[in-house]
Design goal:
The chain has about 325 residues and is an alpha+beta fold. The chain has 2 domains: about 200 residues, Jelly Rolls (Sandwich), CATH 2.60.120; about 100 residues, Orthogonal Bundle (Arc Repressor Mutant, subunit A). The chain has 11 helices and 13 strands. The strands form 2 sheets. It has an 8-stranded antiparallel beta sheet, sandwiched between helices. The chain has a 5-stranded mixed beta sheet with strand order 1-6-11-8-9. It is globular. InterPro entries: Homeodomain-like_sf, HTH_AraC, PchR_regulatory_protein, Tscrpt_reg_AraC-type_HTH. One of its GO terms (molecular function) is sequence-specific DNA binding.
Length: about 325
């Protein structure tokens, strides 16, 4: 096991020096840190936007299980992290992001310790946007008092959102710009701000001012297991009573804690995932609308079309035009 300990943008140079200790044959440049051998890749790039806003791009593949601990500090920033690969854990046992799944977007503060498990022989890819709290408050213009209340809270906290097709497309665009020789920083920064804006808009839509945020009063691992079970059974999901018995949690507590972490009750989440999956299928396959609708558990094509238009503000057929 390889262990790396970092701090949230403690200083760019300190982070790069720590990475160099872990990978002595790697190289530090103005872009960040790069290490590549016949079997391993570790590329960590830090892009400074305006003020103290930073964008971090990381991708790689390692031959040794690696644990990256990002220690908390009091720099008073929030971090948005979007995961395409690897495992993120919060606390000792609670897995937030499943290996190799496009399902992880998180918002947390720099008082929250992060333990990142990078499994050997697994592709790793994520990006993070670090925003000083003062900059975020100015950007948000006090449009949402309840979120502002948690943003300024100096206790550790974390919020989770699903990875939507919009998020995925923007992230892939950002990583594709890494190859550019001209305009790279500007395009990555612009797309990162667009991505962050979509994240906050989604978060705003899914929570109301009465909603409590942050770590629930049950193990996160149970809630992620419930979410995974729903995601794997979009067509025939278990009902709330079965989930309650399986995870030893009352239906009321299950709904409340699931909404606290993921921004919506279990079956609203289920509908959102059905629609996100239908969007991906429309883009990547030539299956009929009826086939897609029925395979994802919609009653019929009409029900699917109405739900799709309400969520994406366009008809399913428009995705293929």
């Amino acid at each position: 096991m390889r262990n790396i300990e970092l701090s949230f943008i403690d200083s760019k140079r300190n982070i790069l020096d720590e990475l160099h200790k872990a990978f002595p044959n790697g190289s530090i440049s103005d872009l960040g840190f790069h290490y590549e051998s016949n079997n391993e890749l570790f590329n960590y790039e830090i892009i400074k936007f305006f003020g103290d806003i930073h964008i971090v791009l990381f991708e790689g593949k390692l031959t040794v299980d690696t644990n990256v601990t990002i220690k908390p500090n009091a720099m008073k920033s929030v971090v948005l992290r979007f995961i395409l690969e690897s495992d993120i854990t919060h606390g000792e046992n609670d897995t937030a992001i499943g290996e190799g799944k496009e399902n992880g977007a998180t918002l947390f503060n720099t008082y929250t310790e992060q333990n990142i498990q990078l499994k050997k022989n697994t592709k790793i890819k994520w990006l993070a946007v670090h925003i000083p709290i003062e900059a975020w408050l100015e950007f948000a213009e006090s449009k949402w008092d309840k979120l502002e209340e948690i943003i300024v809270n100096q206790s550790p906290w974390i919020l989770f959102e699903s990875m939507t097709p919009t998020f995925s497309k923007l992230i892939k665009d950002i990583f594709s710009y890494q190859k550019l020789e001209v305009g790279k920083k500007g395009l990555i920064s612009a797309k990162a701000i667009e991505l962050s804006t979509y994240f906050f808009v989604q978060l705003y839509k899914r929570h109301d001012d009465k909603e409590k945020f942050g770590i629930p009063d049950v193990e996160l691992s149970k809630l992620f297991a419930i979410r995974e079970l729903l995601s794997k059974n979009l067509d025939t999901p278990p009902d709330i009573d079965m989930l309650s018995k399986t995870f030893a949690m009352s239906p009321t507590k299950l709904r409340a804690n699931f909404k606290k972490v993921f921004g919506m009750p279990p079956y609203q989440y289920l509908l959102a995932e059905r629609l996100n999956e239908s969007y991906r299928l429309l883009e990547s396959s030539d299956r009929s609308l009826t086939d897609i609708a029925l395979s994802l558990g919609f009653n019929d094509q009409s029900h699917f079309t109405k739900s799709f238009k309400k969520n994406f503000d366009c008809l399913p057929s428009a995705i293929r035009n």
